[in-house]
Amino acid sequence: MSVAKQNTKIKYMEDAGPKLIDPSMKFYMSRVLKTCHENRTLIYYYVLNVSVFVLFVAITGLVLYYCYQQKKTPYELHQKMLRDQSYILSKIRYYKEEQQKLSSTKLTNLPIM
Fold first, then answer.
1. pLDDT digits (tens, 9 = 90+) for 19-35
2. What are φ and ψ of residue 19, in 5° steps?
3. Distance CA 92, CA 113 (A)
4. How is the chain split into domains, by residue range?
5. What percentage of the chain reaches a pLDDT higher than 90?
6. What's the CA gap between 110 and 80, in Å, rounded?
7. What is the residue-averaged pLDDT of the chain?
8. What three-state secondary structure class fits 76?
9. 3-class secondary-structure state, position 49
């Protein structure tokens, strides 16, 4: 006998052997398990999507609230503008005085007699 015939014969003998579960019950159990698996994956799908959506909304809300809290009032903006202007004017005065000191001193810095 050839090897292929022997494998076919062994396979047939395995199929023809005694079975502990009725084929209809086996089909029913596999169908029930498949349905349970589909329901479980569907539940996981919805739970994951809802939790990601809630997390996204929470983070977006927190960022918007933080930006709203950090927004300055018109009075604070005016005070900042005045501080900036006074800083710039002080620097301009300082550099003008430095230029005047440099131009008024002599080249050798010798005292006048």
1. 787 888 889 999 999 99
2. -120, 140
3. 34
4. 19-71, 72-103
5. 56
6. 46
7. 84
8. helix
9. helix
Give counts: helices (H), strands (E), the chain.
3, 0
What span, in angstroms and rounded, lies between the C-alpha atoms of 52 and 46?
10
Record the pTM. Answer: 0.49
CB 113 within 8 A of CB 105: no
- 49-68 residue pLDDT tens: 999 999 999 999 999 999 98
- CA–CA separation, 10 and 13 (whole Å): 5
Amino acid at 11: K
pLDDT at 99: 84
Q: Which amino acid is at 108?
A: T
Closest to 92 measured CA to CA, from 100, 103, 104: 100
